[in-house]
Amino acid sequence: MTGLMALLKKEILEQWRTYKLLIVGGIFLFFGITTPLMLKYLPQIIELAGSSGMEINIPPPTAVESLVEYAGTVGQLGVLIAVLMMMGSIANELRHGTAVMTLSKPVSRAAFVNAKFIASSLTFLVSLILASVFCYGYTVWLIGDADIMAFAGQNLLVGMFLVFCLAITLLFSSLFKNSLAGGGIAFAVLVGQAGLSAIPRFGDYFPGKLLNWGNVLLTSDSKSYWWALIITVALIALCLYLAQYFLSKRDI
Amino acid sequence: MTAIKTVGLSKYYGNVKALDKLDLEVPENVVFGFLGPNGAGKTTTVKLLTGFSHPTHGSAQVAGETVAGGNIRLQSKIGLLPDVPAFYDWMNGREFLKFVGELHRLPVTDIKKRSEELLETVDLKKAANRRIGGYSRGMRQRLGIAQALMNNPSVLFMDEPTSALDPIGRREVLELISRLRQSATIFMSTHILSDVERVCDMVGVIDKGRLITVSTVSALRKKYARAIFEIEFMENATPFMETLKKVPWLADPTITVEQGNPVLRVRALDVDFARREFPKLITGNGLTLMRYEMSAPSLEDIFVEIMNSENSR
Questions:
Q1: What is the ipTM of this complex?
Q2: Most B CBs within 10 Å: which of A90, A101, A112, as the mutation test of the B interface?
Q3: In this complex, which of A97, A108, A248 lies closest to B82 when CB atoms are compared?
Q4: What are the boundaries of each domain within chain A?
Q5: How much is the pLDDT for B44?
Q6: Topology of the domain comprising B2-222
Q7: What residue spans define the domains of chain B?
Q8: SS3 letters across chain B
Q9: For the whole model, what pTM was predicted?
Q10: Which residue of B has its CA nearest to A9?
Protein backbone atom coordinates (compact mmCIF):
# COMPACT_ATOMS: atom_id res chain seq x y z
CA MET A 1 0.00 0.00 0.00
CA THR A 2 2.43 2.60 -1.27
CA GLY A 3 1.78 6.12 -0.02
CA LEU A 4 -0.61 5.12 2.78
CA MET A 5 1.04 7.19 5.51
CA ALA A 6 1.18 10.41 3.46
CA LEU A 7 -2.41 9.94 2.36
CA LEU A 8 -3.59 9.09 5.86
CA LYS A 9 -1.91 12.21 7.22
CA LYS A 10 -3.69 14.29 4.60
CA GLU A 11 -7.05 12.61 5.24
CA ILE A 12 -6.84 13.15 9.00
CA LEU A 13 -5.90 16.78 8.44
CA GLU A 14 -8.85 17.08 6.06
CA GLN A 15 -11.21 15.65 8.70
CA TRP A 16 -10.08 18.44 11.00
CA ARG A 17 -9.85 21.33 8.51
CA THR A 18 -13.20 20.64 6.86
CA TYR A 19 -14.86 20.37 10.29
CA LYS A 20 -15.96 16.75 9.78
CA LEU A 21 -14.48 15.70 13.11
CA LEU A 22 -16.12 18.65 14.80
CA ILE A 23 -19.52 17.96 13.24
CA VAL A 24 -19.59 14.21 13.90
CA GLY A 25 -18.11 14.69 17.37
CA GLY A 26 -20.58 17.47 18.13
CA ILE A 27 -23.63 15.45 17.06
CA PHE A 28 -22.57 12.33 18.95
CA LEU A 29 -21.67 14.38 22.00
CA PHE A 30 -25.05 16.11 21.89
CA PHE A 31 -26.87 12.79 22.10
CA GLY A 32 -24.36 11.44 24.63
CA ILE A 33 -25.22 14.30 26.99
CA THR A 34 -28.91 14.83 26.25
CA THR A 35 -30.05 11.18 26.40
CA PRO A 36 -29.55 10.74 30.18
CA LEU A 37 -30.69 14.33 30.75
CA MET A 38 -33.92 13.78 28.83
CA LEU A 39 -34.66 10.50 30.61
CA LYS A 40 -34.01 12.00 34.02
CA TYR A 41 -36.01 15.15 33.52
CA LEU A 42 -38.75 13.81 31.22
CA PRO A 43 -41.46 13.94 33.95
CA GLN A 44 -40.57 17.58 34.71
CA ILE A 45 -40.52 18.43 30.99
CA ILE A 46 -43.98 16.92 30.50
CA GLU A 47 -45.22 18.74 33.57
CA LEU A 48 -43.85 22.05 32.33
CA ALA A 49 -45.41 21.44 28.90
CA GLY A 50 -48.80 21.07 30.62
CA SER A 51 -50.51 17.70 30.77
CA SER A 52 -54.11 19.09 30.55
CA GLY A 53 -55.09 17.56 33.85
CA MET A 54 -54.15 14.05 32.74
CA GLU A 55 -52.07 12.09 35.19
CA ILE A 56 -49.11 10.44 33.53
CA ASN A 57 -47.12 8.01 35.56
CA ILE A 58 -43.58 7.58 34.26
CA PRO A 59 -41.51 5.03 36.09
CA PRO A 60 -38.11 6.33 37.20
CA PRO A 61 -35.49 5.75 34.50
CA THR A 62 -32.81 3.12 34.88
CA ALA A 63 -29.15 3.41 33.86
CA VAL A 64 -29.60 0.57 31.38
CA GLU A 65 -32.48 2.43 29.71
CA SER A 66 -30.32 5.50 29.33
CA LEU A 67 -27.39 3.63 27.78
CA VAL A 68 -29.61 1.54 25.48
CA GLU A 69 -31.45 4.66 24.36
CA TYR A 70 -28.16 6.43 23.65
CA ALA A 71 -26.74 3.49 21.68
CA GLY A 72 -29.95 3.23 19.67
CA THR A 73 -29.89 6.92 18.75
CA VAL A 74 -26.20 6.93 17.87
CA GLY A 75 -26.56 3.70 15.89
CA GLN A 76 -29.47 5.00 13.80
CA LEU A 77 -28.25 8.54 13.35
CA GLY A 78 -24.73 7.29 12.79
CA VAL A 79 -25.87 5.42 9.67
CA LEU A 80 -27.17 8.65 8.18
CA ILE A 81 -24.06 10.62 9.14
CA ALA A 82 -21.78 7.86 7.80
CA VAL A 83 -23.57 7.89 4.43
CA LEU A 84 -23.62 11.69 4.21
CA MET A 85 -19.97 12.00 5.16
CA MET A 86 -18.62 9.17 3.02
CA MET A 87 -20.78 9.34 -0.12
CA GLY A 88 -18.58 11.98 -1.77
CA SER A 89 -15.25 10.78 -0.46
CA ILE A 90 -14.13 9.13 -3.70
CA ALA A 91 -16.91 10.31 -6.04
CA ASN A 92 -16.13 13.99 -5.43
CA GLU A 93 -12.42 13.44 -5.95
CA LEU A 94 -13.17 11.72 -9.25
CA ARG A 95 -15.56 14.46 -10.34
CA HIS A 96 -13.40 17.42 -9.31
CA GLY A 97 -10.15 15.93 -10.61
CA THR A 98 -8.23 15.79 -7.33
CA ALA A 99 -8.07 12.00 -7.67
CA VAL A 100 -6.04 12.45 -10.88
CA MET A 101 -3.63 14.79 -9.13
CA THR A 102 -3.10 12.37 -6.26
CA LEU A 103 -3.10 9.11 -8.20
CA SER A 104 -0.59 10.43 -10.75
CA LYS A 105 1.93 10.20 -7.90
CA PRO A 106 3.47 6.90 -6.76
CA VAL A 107 0.54 5.81 -4.60
CA SER A 108 -1.55 2.68 -4.90
CA ARG A 109 -5.30 2.66 -5.33
CA ALA A 110 -5.51 0.53 -2.18
CA ALA A 111 -3.69 3.21 -0.16
CA PHE A 112 -6.02 5.87 -1.60
CA VAL A 113 -9.11 3.93 -0.51
CA ASN A 114 -7.80 2.69 2.84
CA ALA A 115 -6.53 6.12 3.93
CA LYS A 116 -10.05 7.50 3.50
CA PHE A 117 -11.57 4.58 5.35
CA ILE A 118 -9.12 4.72 8.27
CA ALA A 119 -9.40 8.50 8.70
CA SER A 120 -13.22 8.44 8.64
CA SER A 121 -13.32 5.46 11.00
CA LEU A 122 -11.04 7.33 13.39
CA THR A 123 -13.37 10.32 13.28
CA PHE A 124 -16.33 8.11 14.13
CA LEU A 125 -14.52 6.16 16.83
CA VAL A 126 -13.08 9.25 18.52
CA SER A 127 -16.54 10.87 18.44
CA LEU A 128 -18.12 7.71 19.80
CA ILE A 129 -15.60 7.42 22.64
CA LEU A 130 -16.10 11.07 23.57
CA ALA A 131 -19.90 10.79 23.47
CA SER A 132 -19.95 7.51 25.40
CA VAL A 133 -17.71 8.90 28.15
CA PHE A 134 -20.10 11.81 28.64
CA CYS A 135 -23.17 9.60 28.37
CA TYR A 136 -21.86 7.17 30.96
CA GLY A 137 -20.79 9.99 33.27
CA TYR A 138 -24.15 11.75 33.11
CA THR A 139 -26.04 8.46 33.46
CA VAL A 140 -24.15 7.46 36.61
CA TRP A 141 -24.44 10.99 38.01
CA LEU A 142 -28.14 11.54 37.28
CA ILE A 143 -29.69 8.08 37.18
CA GLY A 144 -27.55 5.40 38.72
CA ASP A 145 -24.65 3.01 38.32
CA ALA A 146 -24.19 0.82 35.25
CA ASP A 147 -21.83 -1.93 34.14
CA ILE A 148 -18.98 -0.01 32.51
CA MET A 149 -17.51 -3.06 30.76
CA ALA A 150 -20.85 -3.97 29.22
CA PHE A 151 -21.26 -0.36 28.06
CA ALA A 152 -17.74 -0.40 26.57
CA GLY A 153 -18.61 -3.62 24.76
CA GLN A 154 -21.83 -2.07 23.50
CA ASN A 155 -19.92 0.92 22.15
CA LEU A 156 -17.41 -1.33 20.45
CA LEU A 157 -20.25 -3.10 18.66
CA VAL A 158 -21.93 0.17 17.70
CA GLY A 159 -18.54 1.41 16.48
CA MET A 160 -18.02 -1.73 14.41
CA PHE A 161 -21.47 -1.33 12.85
CA LEU A 162 -20.80 2.31 11.95
CA VAL A 163 -17.42 1.41 10.47
CA PHE A 164 -19.27 -1.14 8.34
CA CYS A 165 -21.62 1.65 7.19
CA LEU A 166 -18.57 3.74 6.23
CA ALA A 167 -17.06 0.84 4.25
CA ILE A 168 -20.32 0.19 2.35
CA THR A 169 -20.67 3.88 1.46
CA LEU A 170 -17.02 4.08 0.42
CA LEU A 171 -17.54 1.14 -1.92
CA PHE A 172 -20.47 2.81 -3.68
CA SER A 173 -18.63 6.12 -3.74
CA SER A 174 -15.90 4.43 -5.81
CA LEU A 175 -18.47 3.24 -8.34
CA PHE A 176 -20.09 6.56 -9.18
CA LYS A 177 -18.88 10.04 -10.02
CA ASN A 178 -22.16 11.34 -8.63
CA SER A 179 -21.98 11.28 -4.85
CA LEU A 180 -25.77 11.28 -4.49
CA ALA A 181 -26.03 8.08 -6.53
CA GLY A 182 -23.39 6.36 -4.41
CA GLY A 183 -24.91 7.64 -1.17
CA GLY A 184 -28.45 6.71 -2.20
CA ILE A 185 -27.53 3.14 -3.08
CA ALA A 186 -25.42 2.74 0.07
CA PHE A 187 -28.32 3.98 2.18
CA ALA A 188 -30.71 1.58 0.45
CA VAL A 189 -28.33 -1.34 1.08
CA LEU A 190 -28.00 -0.38 4.76
CA VAL A 191 -31.76 -0.08 5.19
CA GLY A 192 -32.14 -3.42 3.39
CA GLN A 193 -29.71 -5.20 5.69
CA ALA A 194 -31.42 -3.63 8.72
CA GLY A 195 -34.69 -5.15 7.52
CA LEU A 196 -33.08 -8.54 6.97
CA SER A 197 -31.38 -8.47 10.36
CA ALA A 198 -34.84 -8.21 11.97
CA ILE A 199 -35.84 -11.63 10.58
CA PRO A 200 -35.61 -14.20 13.39
CA ARG A 201 -32.57 -16.53 13.16
CA PHE A 202 -31.78 -15.57 9.55
CA GLY A 203 -31.10 -12.01 10.71
CA ASP A 204 -28.53 -13.19 13.25
CA TYR A 205 -25.89 -13.17 10.50
CA PHE A 206 -26.34 -9.53 9.47
CA PRO A 207 -24.28 -6.53 10.67
CA GLY A 208 -27.43 -4.84 11.97
CA LYS A 209 -27.58 -7.48 14.68
CA LEU A 210 -24.51 -5.92 16.31
CA LEU A 211 -26.73 -3.13 17.67
CA ASN A 212 -29.02 -5.72 19.31
CA TRP A 213 -26.02 -7.54 20.72
CA GLY A 214 -24.83 -4.28 22.31
CA ASN A 215 -28.16 -3.93 24.11
CA VAL A 216 -28.08 -7.57 25.14
CA LEU A 217 -24.70 -6.98 26.81
CA LEU A 218 -26.24 -4.32 29.05
CA THR A 219 -29.27 -6.38 30.04
CA SER A 220 -27.05 -9.28 31.12
CA ASP A 221 -28.67 -11.59 28.61
CA SER A 222 -26.26 -14.29 27.54
CA LYS A 223 -27.26 -14.27 23.87
CA SER A 224 -24.39 -13.41 21.54
CA TYR A 225 -24.08 -12.85 17.78
CA TRP A 226 -20.52 -13.81 16.93
CA TRP A 227 -21.41 -14.72 13.36
CA ALA A 228 -22.77 -11.23 12.80
CA LEU A 229 -19.47 -9.81 14.01
CA ILE A 230 -17.35 -12.14 11.87
CA ILE A 231 -19.48 -11.44 8.80
CA THR A 232 -19.33 -7.68 9.45
CA VAL A 233 -15.52 -7.75 9.60
CA ALA A 234 -15.41 -9.86 6.44
CA LEU A 235 -17.80 -7.49 4.66
CA ILE A 236 -15.70 -4.46 5.65
CA ALA A 237 -12.60 -6.13 4.17
CA LEU A 238 -14.56 -7.10 1.04
CA CYS A 239 -15.90 -3.54 0.59
CA LEU A 240 -12.39 -2.08 0.83
CA TYR A 241 -11.01 -4.64 -1.60
CA LEU A 242 -13.82 -4.05 -4.09
CA ALA A 243 -13.53 -0.26 -3.80
CA GLN A 244 -9.85 -0.28 -4.74
CA TYR A 245 -10.51 -2.95 -7.41
CA PHE A 246 -13.25 -0.90 -9.10
CA LEU A 247 -11.13 2.21 -8.80
CA SER A 248 -8.22 0.52 -10.55
CA LYS A 249 -10.46 -0.85 -13.30
CA ARG A 250 -12.24 2.37 -14.16
CA ASP A 251 -11.06 5.23 -16.35
CA ILE A 252 -10.40 8.29 -14.25
CA MET B 1 16.62 6.55 -26.43
CA THR B 2 12.84 6.64 -26.66
CA ALA B 3 10.96 8.35 -23.86
CA ILE B 4 7.47 7.49 -25.10
CA LYS B 5 6.52 4.63 -27.37
CA THR B 6 3.07 3.48 -28.32
CA VAL B 7 2.08 0.55 -30.50
CA GLY B 8 -1.42 0.50 -31.92
CA LEU B 9 -2.73 2.36 -28.90
CA SER B 10 -6.50 2.65 -29.23
CA LYS B 11 -9.41 3.73 -27.12
CA TYR B 12 -12.95 3.10 -28.27
CA TYR B 13 -16.16 4.15 -26.55
CA GLY B 14 -18.69 1.97 -28.29
CA ASN B 15 -18.52 3.01 -31.92
CA VAL B 16 -16.62 6.19 -31.19
CA LYS B 17 -12.89 5.91 -31.81
CA ALA B 18 -11.42 8.41 -29.36
CA LEU B 19 -7.95 7.19 -30.32
CA ASP B 20 -7.27 4.84 -33.17
CA LYS B 21 -4.08 2.81 -33.53
CA LEU B 22 -1.60 5.38 -32.34
CA ASP B 23 1.97 4.44 -33.24
CA LEU B 24 4.26 7.05 -31.81
CA GLU B 25 7.87 7.38 -30.72
CA VAL B 26 9.07 10.42 -28.84
CA PRO B 27 12.83 10.63 -28.22
CA GLU B 28 14.29 11.72 -24.91
CA ASN B 29 14.81 15.37 -24.02
CA VAL B 30 12.56 16.92 -26.60
CA VAL B 31 9.51 19.08 -26.26
CA PHE B 32 6.82 17.23 -28.17
CA GLY B 33 3.77 19.23 -29.15
CA PHE B 34 0.63 17.18 -29.59
CA LEU B 35 -1.59 19.28 -31.79
CA GLY B 36 -5.18 18.87 -32.66
CA PRO B 37 -8.55 20.56 -32.65
CA ASN B 38 -10.92 20.17 -29.70
CA GLY B 39 -12.13 16.58 -29.40
CA ALA B 40 -9.30 15.22 -31.54
CA GLY B 41 -8.12 12.76 -28.87
CA LYS B 42 -5.35 14.73 -27.16
CA THR B 43 -6.59 14.37 -23.58
CA THR B 44 -7.51 10.73 -24.21
CA THR B 45 -3.91 10.11 -25.29
CA VAL B 46 -2.52 11.83 -22.19
CA LYS B 47 -4.83 9.76 -19.98
CA LEU B 48 -3.77 6.55 -21.71
CA LEU B 49 -0.08 7.41 -21.43
CA THR B 50 -0.36 8.22 -17.73
CA GLY B 51 -2.36 5.09 -16.87
CA PHE B 52 -5.64 6.83 -16.06
CA SER B 53 -7.46 5.24 -18.94
CA HIS B 54 -7.34 1.64 -20.10
CA PRO B 55 -6.63 1.07 -23.80
CA THR B 56 -9.04 -0.96 -25.89
CA HIS B 57 -6.08 -2.23 -27.89
CA GLY B 58 -2.36 -1.63 -28.05
CA SER B 59 0.29 -0.79 -25.53
CA ALA B 60 2.50 2.04 -24.40
CA GLN B 61 5.83 2.51 -22.71
CA VAL B 62 6.84 5.68 -20.93
CA ALA B 63 10.27 6.27 -19.40
CA GLY B 64 11.06 2.61 -19.93
CA GLU B 65 8.01 1.46 -17.98
CA THR B 66 4.97 -0.31 -19.32
CA VAL B 67 1.95 1.92 -18.88
CA ALA B 68 -0.67 0.40 -16.64
CA GLY B 69 -2.93 1.85 -13.98
CA GLY B 70 -1.20 1.81 -10.62
CA ASN B 71 2.36 1.22 -11.94
CA ILE B 72 4.19 2.85 -9.03
CA ARG B 73 7.57 2.93 -10.79
CA LEU B 74 6.02 4.70 -13.78
CA GLN B 75 4.31 7.23 -11.53
CA SER B 76 7.55 8.05 -9.75
CA LYS B 77 9.19 8.87 -13.10
CA ILE B 78 6.50 11.07 -14.61
CA GLY B 79 4.88 14.40 -13.88
CA LEU B 80 1.36 15.30 -14.95
CA LEU B 81 -0.33 18.62 -15.38
CA PRO B 82 -3.99 17.84 -16.23
CA ASP B 83 -6.02 20.16 -18.47
CA VAL B 84 -7.85 21.54 -15.42
CA PRO B 85 -5.61 21.01 -12.39
CA ALA B 86 -7.66 20.38 -9.24
CA PHE B 87 -6.49 20.76 -5.66
CA TYR B 88 -7.66 20.27 -2.11
CA ASP B 89 -8.93 23.79 -1.61
CA TRP B 90 -8.53 23.67 2.17
CA MET B 91 -4.76 23.34 1.77
CA ASN B 92 -2.44 26.21 1.00
CA GLY B 93 0.04 26.16 -1.86
CA ARG B 94 3.04 25.26 0.28
CA GLU B 95 1.13 22.48 2.05
CA PHE B 96 0.08 20.98 -1.27
CA LEU B 97 3.65 20.82 -2.54
CA LYS B 98 4.70 19.25 0.77
CA PHE B 99 1.93 16.68 0.36
CA VAL B 100 3.11 15.90 -3.19
CA GLY B 101 6.70 15.57 -1.95
CA GLU B 102 5.54 13.13 0.72
CA LEU B 103 3.67 11.09 -1.87
CA HIS B 104 6.93 10.87 -3.82
CA ARG B 105 8.62 9.81 -0.57
CA LEU B 106 11.25 12.52 -0.83
CA PRO B 107 13.32 13.27 2.29
CA VAL B 108 11.85 16.06 4.45
CA THR B 109 14.74 18.46 3.79
CA ASP B 110 14.48 17.88 0.03
CA ILE B 111 10.72 18.52 0.12
CA LYS B 112 11.23 21.86 1.84
CA LYS B 113 14.05 22.93 -0.49
CA ARG B 114 12.30 21.78 -3.66
CA SER B 115 8.98 23.35 -2.63
CA GLU B 116 10.60 26.74 -2.10
CA GLU B 117 12.46 26.48 -5.42
CA LEU B 118 9.29 25.61 -7.28
CA LEU B 119 7.23 28.31 -5.57
CA GLU B 120 9.88 30.78 -6.68
CA THR B 121 9.92 29.35 -10.22
CA VAL B 122 6.18 29.63 -10.69
CA ASP B 123 5.98 32.96 -8.87
CA LEU B 124 3.73 31.80 -6.06
CA LYS B 125 5.98 32.51 -3.12
CA LYS B 126 3.87 35.41 -1.87
CA ALA B 127 0.66 33.37 -2.11
CA ALA B 128 2.17 30.14 -0.75
CA ASN B 129 0.43 30.40 2.62
CA ARG B 130 -2.96 31.33 1.17
CA ARG B 131 -5.71 28.74 0.82
CA ILE B 132 -5.77 27.28 -2.70
CA GLY B 133 -9.53 27.83 -2.70
CA GLY B 134 -8.80 31.54 -3.09
CA TYR B 135 -6.35 31.15 -6.00
CA SER B 136 -7.14 32.50 -9.46
CA ARG B 137 -7.19 30.12 -12.42
CA GLY B 138 -3.74 31.25 -13.49
CA MET B 139 -2.36 30.67 -10.00
CA ARG B 140 -3.86 27.20 -9.92
CA GLN B 141 -2.27 26.47 -13.30
CA ARG B 142 1.11 27.58 -12.00
CA LEU B 143 0.72 25.50 -8.85
CA GLY B 144 -0.20 22.59 -11.12
CA ILE B 145 3.07 23.04 -12.99
CA ALA B 146 5.01 23.19 -9.71
CA GLN B 147 3.47 19.96 -8.38
CA ALA B 148 4.19 18.18 -11.67
CA LEU B 149 7.88 19.09 -11.34
CA MET B 150 8.26 18.11 -7.67
CA ASN B 151 9.96 14.77 -8.43
CA ASN B 152 12.16 16.07 -11.30
CA PRO B 153 10.25 13.83 -13.72
CA SER B 154 11.98 12.27 -16.69
CA VAL B 155 8.76 12.56 -18.73
CA LEU B 156 6.40 15.44 -18.12
CA PHE B 157 2.86 15.40 -19.50
CA MET B 158 1.21 18.77 -19.85
CA ASP B 159 -2.35 19.01 -21.07
CA GLU B 160 -2.96 22.55 -22.35
CA PRO B 161 -0.32 24.05 -20.03
CA THR B 162 -0.81 27.67 -21.03
CA SER B 163 -4.56 27.78 -21.57
CA ALA B 164 -5.38 29.64 -18.35
CA LEU B 165 -2.44 32.00 -18.30
CA ASP B 166 -2.12 35.67 -19.16
CA PRO B 167 0.49 36.67 -21.79
CA ILE B 168 3.25 37.19 -19.23
CA GLY B 169 2.44 33.95 -17.41
CA ARG B 170 2.36 32.16 -20.76
CA ARG B 171 5.77 33.49 -21.74
CA GLU B 172 7.24 32.43 -18.39
CA VAL B 173 5.79 28.93 -18.63
CA LEU B 174 7.06 28.51 -22.17
CA GLU B 175 10.52 29.63 -21.07
CA LEU B 176 10.34 27.13 -18.23
CA ILE B 177 9.35 24.36 -20.65
CA SER B 178 12.27 25.32 -22.89
CA ARG B 179 14.69 25.04 -19.99
CA LEU B 180 13.22 21.70 -18.86
CA ARG B 181 14.08 19.94 -22.10
CA GLN B 182 17.63 19.57 -20.79
CA SER B 183 16.46 17.23 -18.05
CA ALA B 184 13.10 15.89 -19.21
CA THR B 185 10.99 14.90 -22.17
CA ILE B 186 7.91 17.05 -22.37
CA PHE B 187 4.71 15.85 -23.98
CA MET B 188 2.57 18.92 -24.38
CA SER B 189 -0.92 18.68 -25.78
CA THR B 190 -2.26 21.96 -27.04
CA HIS B 191 -4.22 23.71 -29.71
CA ILE B 192 -2.29 26.95 -29.29
CA LEU B 193 -0.04 26.91 -32.32
CA SER B 194 2.11 29.86 -31.33
CA ASP B 195 3.16 27.92 -28.19
CA VAL B 196 4.16 24.95 -30.29
CA GLU B 197 6.04 27.17 -32.70
CA ARG B 198 7.91 28.71 -29.80
CA VAL B 199 9.05 25.72 -27.78
CA CYS B 200 8.44 22.42 -29.52
CA ASP B 201 11.14 20.41 -31.23
CA MET B 202 8.66 17.90 -32.61
CA VAL B 203 4.98 17.92 -33.33
CA GLY B 204 2.35 15.28 -33.80
CA VAL B 205 -0.92 16.28 -35.39
CA ILE B 206 -4.02 14.34 -34.40
CA ASP B 207 -7.57 14.60 -35.68
CA LYS B 208 -10.61 12.44 -34.96
CA GLY B 209 -8.47 10.05 -32.96
CA ARG B 210 -5.98 9.41 -35.76
CA LEU B 211 -2.39 10.57 -35.85
CA ILE B 212 -1.97 12.43 -39.12
CA THR B 213 1.67 13.33 -39.02
CA VAL B 214 4.70 13.37 -36.74
CA SER B 215 7.65 15.51 -37.59
CA THR B 216 10.11 18.09 -36.40
CA VAL B 217 8.75 21.62 -36.70
CA SER B 218 11.42 22.53 -39.29
CA ALA B 219 10.70 19.42 -41.39
CA LEU B 220 7.01 20.22 -41.27
CA ARG B 221 7.69 23.71 -42.49
CA LYS B 222 9.81 22.35 -45.28
CA LYS B 223 7.22 19.77 -46.24
CA TYR B 224 4.40 22.25 -46.34
CA ALA B 225 6.48 25.14 -47.59
CA ARG B 226 4.38 27.16 -49.99
CA ALA B 227 6.54 30.25 -50.14
CA ILE B 228 4.71 33.30 -51.36
CA PHE B 229 6.63 36.24 -52.85
CA GLU B 230 5.13 39.65 -52.18
CA ILE B 231 6.45 42.41 -54.43
CA GLU B 232 5.70 46.08 -54.91
CA PHE B 233 6.96 47.98 -57.96
CA MET B 234 7.30 51.62 -58.87
CA GLU B 235 5.83 50.82 -62.27
CA ASN B 236 2.60 49.18 -63.40
CA ALA B 237 3.11 45.43 -62.92
CA THR B 238 0.22 44.21 -65.04
CA PRO B 239 2.34 43.43 -68.14
CA PHE B 240 4.77 41.55 -65.92
CA MET B 241 1.92 39.26 -64.90
CA GLU B 242 1.83 37.79 -68.37
CA THR B 243 5.54 36.98 -68.14
CA LEU B 244 5.09 35.30 -64.75
CA LYS B 245 2.32 33.05 -66.04
CA LYS B 246 4.82 31.48 -68.42
CA VAL B 247 7.50 30.83 -65.75
CA PRO B 248 7.42 27.11 -64.79
CA TRP B 249 8.73 27.54 -61.24
CA LEU B 250 6.07 30.10 -60.29
CA ALA B 251 2.29 29.81 -60.01
CA ASP B 252 -0.89 31.74 -59.28
CA PRO B 253 0.29 35.33 -59.79
CA THR B 254 -2.23 37.91 -58.54
CA ILE B 255 -2.28 41.66 -58.13
CA THR B 256 -4.14 43.36 -55.30
CA VAL B 257 -4.21 47.03 -54.40
CA GLU B 258 -3.17 47.71 -50.82
CA GLN B 259 -3.09 51.27 -49.47
CA GLY B 260 -3.19 52.59 -53.02
CA ASN B 261 -0.22 50.50 -54.20
CA PRO B 262 -0.48 47.44 -56.44
CA VAL B 263 0.99 44.39 -54.70
CA LEU B 264 1.93 41.34 -56.72
CA ARG B 265 1.77 37.92 -55.09
CA VAL B 266 3.08 34.78 -56.64
CA ARG B 267 3.63 31.27 -55.26
CA ALA B 268 6.99 29.58 -55.72
CA LEU B 269 6.80 25.95 -56.77
CA ASP B 270 10.52 25.49 -56.35
CA VAL B 271 11.45 27.73 -53.45
CA ASP B 272 15.24 27.50 -53.63
CA PHE B 273 15.27 28.07 -57.39
CA ALA B 274 12.85 30.97 -57.12
CA ARG B 275 14.97 32.61 -54.44
CA ARG B 276 17.92 32.69 -56.84
CA GLU B 277 16.20 33.46 -60.11
CA PHE B 278 13.27 35.72 -59.24
CA PRO B 279 15.33 38.90 -58.57
CA LYS B 280 17.08 38.41 -61.93
CA LEU B 281 13.71 38.05 -63.67
CA ILE B 282 12.47 41.29 -62.15
CA THR B 283 15.53 43.34 -63.10
CA GLY B 284 15.55 41.71 -66.51
CA ASN B 285 12.08 43.15 -67.10
CA GLY B 286 13.27 46.64 -66.21
CA LEU B 287 11.09 47.02 -63.11
CA THR B 288 12.00 49.08 -60.04
CA LEU B 289 11.47 47.34 -56.68
CA MET B 290 9.83 49.11 -53.77
CA ARG B 291 9.36 46.02 -51.60
CA TYR B 292 10.36 42.41 -52.03
CA GLU B 293 9.74 39.71 -49.45
CA MET B 294 9.07 36.05 -49.13
CA SER B 295 6.57 34.96 -46.52
CA ALA B 296 6.93 31.43 -45.16
CA PRO B 297 3.77 29.76 -43.94
CA SER B 298 3.14 29.89 -40.20
CA LEU B 299 2.49 26.71 -38.26
CA GLU B 300 -1.12 27.81 -38.20
CA ASP B 301 -1.20 27.83 -42.02
CA ILE B 302 0.35 24.39 -42.05
CA PHE B 303 -2.08 23.10 -39.42
CA VAL B 304 -5.06 24.43 -41.34
CA GLU B 305 -3.73 22.90 -44.54
CA ILE B 306 -3.23 19.53 -42.87
CA MET B 307 -6.72 19.64 -41.40
CA ASN B 308 -8.27 20.69 -44.71
CA SER B 309 -6.51 17.99 -46.66
CA GLU B 310 -7.54 15.44 -44.01
CA ASN B 311 -11.17 16.55 -44.09
CA SER B 312 -11.31 16.48 -47.88
CA ARG B 313 -10.33 12.78 -47.93
A1: 0.88
A2: A101
A3: A97
A4: 4-249
A5: 94
A6: Rossmann fold (3.40.50)
A7: 2-222, 226-295
A8: CEEEEEEEEEEEECCEEEEEEEEEEEECCCEEEEECCCCCCHHHHHHHHCCCCCCCEEEEEECCEECCCCCHHHHHHEEEECCCCCCCCCCEHHHHHHHHHHHCCCCHHHHHHHHHHHHHHCCCCCCCCCEHHHCCHHHHHHHHHHHHHCCCCCEEEEECCCCCCCHHHHHHHHHHHHHHCCCCEEEEEECCHHHHHHHCCEEEEEECCEEEEEEEHHHHHHHCCCCEEEEEECCCCHHHHHHHHCCCCEEEEEEEEECCEEEEEEEECCHHHHHHHHHHHHHHCCCCEEEEEEECCCHHHHHHHHHHHHHCC
A9: 0.84
A10: B99
